Amino acid sequence: MIVESLNTLIERIIEDRTLITGTLSQLRKKEGATYTKVGVKPVQLKNGLHYQFAYYTGTQVEHRNMPAESAADELSSLLGDTFRQGLLCTAEADYQVLISKKQKATVLTKPPTKKAVADLSHNRRKQYVLEEGEPVPFLIELGIMSDSGKVLAKKYDKFRQINRFLEMVEDVLTSLPQGRPLTIVDFGCGKSYLTFALYHYLAIREKRELSIVGLDLKADVIAHCSALAVKLGYDKLRFLVGDIADYNELDRVDMVVTLHACDTATDAALEKAVRWGASVILSVPCCQHELFAQIDNEIMEPLLSHGILKERFSALATDAIRAKLLDLMGYRTQLLEFIDMEHTPKNILIRAVKSGSGDSGAKWREYAAFRDFLGAKPYLERACADLLPGEAESRSN
Ligand SMILES: C[S@@+](CC[C@H](N)C(=O)[O-])C[C@H]1O[C@@H](n2cnc3c(N)ncnc32)[C@H](O)[C@@H]1O
């Protein structure tokens, strides 16, 4: 296992798409090694940006392409377990990574020596999933675009948000089940800009067979969204009135989306997603009040005595708890910036992809220590108690 700061660096340069090339060398153990050096670079494939790993053995080289989320894991594990040196080149800096015998990582930041490949950086940075100038029916109906495809000036932030969301979806396409229709639920869909965007992107552009359900408490909003789905001919998009916690209509759901659902409504959605074993969860939490009322810790008094700091800290701690609990329930969880802070402070997206279960004993102890330090009793832990290892089990691991 390598230190967190290196993992954070790797996640950031993969997530921000700034990695240009990487080289890993100096085997930790020569005996039994299957390759002696590994190179990595981004490649634009039909199904989005991937990372190409080149594994060198003598004069032979084997290539493997991986989507972003697997690429970050592969880099971390190669640097943690196999190699002692790495050079990660980005446009802003070269990062030289040195791993000691005790697996302590040192990262030296040096001036950049590489420039991003022009056409790839164009794809990475400028091209939106939905381009201005191409009329898209749902964007026209929602008043974001004119009939000619021009984005209305005051709707530009919304347009960027929709595109950012679709980029996040693009990155997890390969984690969704292939070869069968998908079932997707959007909890707390509200006016459903992003639900319509999801349908357009997956059903129309990607031609995936699917059905999407949007659920919300507000009957008038749901009636409006249903009428719009009919008008657009989105026949596999249904909108229902209901409370997330009571929604029991489906047996299997592949992806759960919950964007800005208030307070513990997000946790209710996460619980449903985990119980369905959804392959992908995308969640942007909103107005976290639960921990604000619970947190109590004398050492943290200088921070907690200021309402504004307590509120922000409670929100961050809530997301840290959610991420850890999702990890404990078999997900690989990342917290990503959804859109720039200047547009909304509600900008953290939890992206969780179903994976194997990890070291639940140590993870649980880490989680429980954090929770107890804060004096928190989180909804998600209470709701998913039967799916979590718990104190006794963690001690026996
Ligand atoms: C801030 S809006 C977000 C709407 C939309 N997802 C978006 O990101 O634009 C939050 C929505 O969640 C809905 N909501 C809150 N609690 C809910 C619950 N327990 N069950 C269903 N919907 C809920 C609200 O009615 C509201 O429409």
TrEMBL record:
Pfam families: Methyltransf_32 (PF13679). GO terms for cellular component: cytoplasm. It comes from the Bacteria. Transmembrane segments: none annotated. Residues 157-292 form the Methyltransferase domain. SUPFAM superfamilies: S-adenosyl-L-methionine-dependent methyltransferases. This is Methyltransferase domain-containing protein. It comes from Paenibacillus sabinae T27.
